[in-house]
Structures are given as C-alpha cells and as structure tokens.
Amino acid sequence: MNERYPRPDGGHARATPARRAVHASRAGLAAALTIAAALAALPAHAEKADRDKPLNIEADNMSYDDLGQKNIFTGHVVATKGTIVIKADRVEVTQDPQGYQYATGTSSGNNLSYFRQKRDGLDEYIDGNAVRIDYDGKNDFTKLTTRAVVRRLQGLTKVQDEVHGSVITYDGQKDFYTATAGKDQAGPGNPNGRVRAMLAPRSGGAAPLNGSPATLSPSNTIQGNPQQ
C-alpha cells in the first residue's frame, strides 16, 4: 500500500484541489494515506547536480570487501554527495561499471539513520530518519525502511509536512514519494501501524529561489492492498 506524491508534468501553474479525507478500505486493517505533491510553475526536482558530485565519507573505521566489491564504513558515519547527507552507524558503498554510486546506511538500537537532500530551485529540503536508508545514485532514488519518517522543510528548520510509515521512498528525479504502513508503526492510538501525515496549510508555502512554492494535497484514491 503506497502513498504517492506526484508532481505536474508541465511547468504551468495548476490549481490545488481541496483536501479530501482518506478512508480505510477495510476496517481494522492498515491502510495507506495517498498524498499528491503538485508543483506550480517551474518543476522542482531534487538538486540536479547531486549525482554528479563526489561522495565524501567520514567514519571511525573503513574496510573493503573485495568479494562483494564494496566499501564498508562503521562508527558515526557521515556521507555527503552534493546537498545529500546520510548519517548512520554503518554505511556500505558500491559503484556500478558506469560509475554510479549506491549507499546503504543502517543503525541499531535506538539510533536511526538520517537522510537529507535539497530540492532544486527552492529553499526547501527533504529529510528523514529510518533504521535503514538506501540511496540509488543512478536514479536519484532513496528508500527509508523501518520506523521511517520524512519531512519537507522550509529552509533547514521549519517543518511544512511530515509523513510516518514503515517504508517511505523518495524519487528525487520526479519529486515523487510513497509511504507504506507496517507493524513497526503500531503504538497507542495506532494499533494497526497505519501511515500518518501532518500537512501544513498552504496559505504561505515555501520561499522559492525561483518559481512558485511547492504544494501538497491529499489524493482521492487509496492504492495497494492493506496489510493483513
């Protein structure tokens, strides 16, 4: 069950539909909340130059797995690639023959891994936490797994929107993300671990570097099948 946050295909401003309530498709079962991100005027992707930037990593330790063809960093790992930041207890890095880089960050105990990336042309960032974070440098695609939360920030501090889910994906090329419910989200008031979201009013919006501010509004459909 996925939440989808698509953007408009074109560069012309579009009217944002009124928020609609999302109803559970089956009582007592986890259901997904679907949210669409429609960007008015100029498209706003993740920072376009990020995947062409070098990957820089700081850590307490590093080892190289020749059999698996990967570098393994452990201990307070901080990886940066342009505006992308990944922090975790452990980060594994691989590279394909075309030179595209892939990173997997994991953390244990009460620690959560961290991800942040700037949106192109806007004073906005997508950041989030999860036990595991996978970054695909070829497709500019990030997957946050287990106890995942993703926020849209105005600047680096003001939270505009926040989504909680078991698995959250973010497609930086299309500015599109999904969220899935799961048992790791279960707790008081949410026994089925459903996806939850907080959406800020769109009266002001973000401060754009160019173009119009991004907007977020619920979809009128639920996609995917509820988890049993």
TrEMBL record:
Segments for region (Disordered): 179-228
Coiled coil: none
Compartments (UniProt record): Periplasm
Keyword Signal listed: yes
Domain Organic solvent tolerance-like N-terminal residues, every copy: 56-175
Molecular-function GO term, any one: lipopolysaccharide binding
A Pfam family: LptD_N
Main subcellular location: periplasm
This protein's record includes keyword Signal: yes
Matching Gene3D superfamilies: Lipopolysaccharide (LPS) transport protein A like domain (2.60.450.10)
UniProt feature, compositional bias: Polar residues: 212-228
Top-level division of the source organism's lineage: Bacteria
Subunit relationships: Component of the lipopolysaccharide transport and assembly complex.
Family: Belongs to the LptA family.
Protein name: Lipopolysaccharide export system protein LptA
Organism, scientific name: Caballeronia novacaledonica
